[in-house]
Amino acid sequence: MPDYTTLKPLGALITGLSVTTLTDRDVCELRAVLARHGVVVLPGQAIDDTQFVDFLRRFGEIVFTVGESPVPGFPDLNVVSNVGRDRPPRSTFHTDTSYVRNPPAYTALRAVRVPSRGGHTLFTDQYAAYESLPGEVRDRLDGRTITHIMTGLDLDADQETTALHPVFLRHPESGRTALYLSAPQRCAAVSGMSPELAAATVAFLFRHSTRADNVYRHEWTDGDLVMWDNRCVLHCADHSGVIGDRVMHRGMVADHRSGSSSAERVS
């Protein structure tokens, strides 16, 4: 795999690599970069959805969030778009589909149509968020879990809508610990805390994670493919001040280690 450029404060820009000709070694090295840096930016990828699906499958089983809008002809992908909307889409920092017991390890976006202004995607470094927590906060939260819930989707009664995940997760590939949470409205409880204290704790952790010096802002260009590791980053679309159509196709990948959770509790 070609050398990559480290982005600040997180992420890696990889040039000179076509996702249509990846070797097994390339995939392994991309996994390692994702585990280390959280986000990979792959510019200049002139691919269609068939090739996008083939790329995702190199990393594992594709998973789809029930209730999202699928790409016509590609039920494994969903559309993220502002086209035809009276109001801009809403987004806040979150991790994808954390209300299931085994959330997707990876998410990727393919730029289909890039607006002339705005529409950036923001990412946080959840390793740094954990490592910069005050010691007393880490001690107080060690071993606790957050109850993650589904919001904004219409699901059948037999589908998962809530799951417990450790506040601190050890990444299975990097071995580092990340602060694992989602948008505050998707974090319904913290084990061993009153509802009031839990809400205040989640709000503090969310502010701490999303502070400006911990955020990478990706400005999209035609041909961009961006992939990130949900186990160590949060992400958010900035829909403010967008001029023009913004159309992305999204795919998510389950953890590639059969029968295992995507992350481990820190003991």
The helical percent reads 10-25%
Distance between the termini: 35 Å
Rg over CA atoms: 18 Å
Computed structural class: alpha+beta
Largest beta-sheet characterization: 9 strands, mixed
Number of helices: 5
Mean pLDDT: 92
Approximate shape: globular
SSE sequence, one letter per element: EEHEHEEEEEHHEEEEEHEEEEE
Low-pLDDT runs of 5+ residues are 258-263
- How many β-strand runs? 18
Describe this structure in words.
- This protein has about 270 residues and is of the alpha+beta class.
- It contains five helices and 18 strands.
- The longest helix is centred in the last third of the chain and has 15 residues.
- It is globular, with a radius of gyration of 18 Å.
- The relative contact order is 0.26.
- About 0% of the residues have low confidence.
What keywords describe this structure?
5 helices; alpha+beta; 19% helix; three-stranded antiparallel β-sheet; 267 residues; single chain
List the helices and strands and how they pair.
Blueprint: E1 4-6, E2 12-14, H1 24-37, E3 39-42, H2 49-57, E4 62-63, E5 70-71, E6 74-81, E7 106-113, E8 121-124, H3 126-131, H4 135-141, E9 145-149, E10 162-166, E11 168-170, E12 177-179, E13 187-190, H5 195-209, E14 215-218, E15 225-229, E16 235-237, E17 247-253, E18 264-265
Can you describe this structure in just a few lines?
The chain is 19% helix and 28% strand.
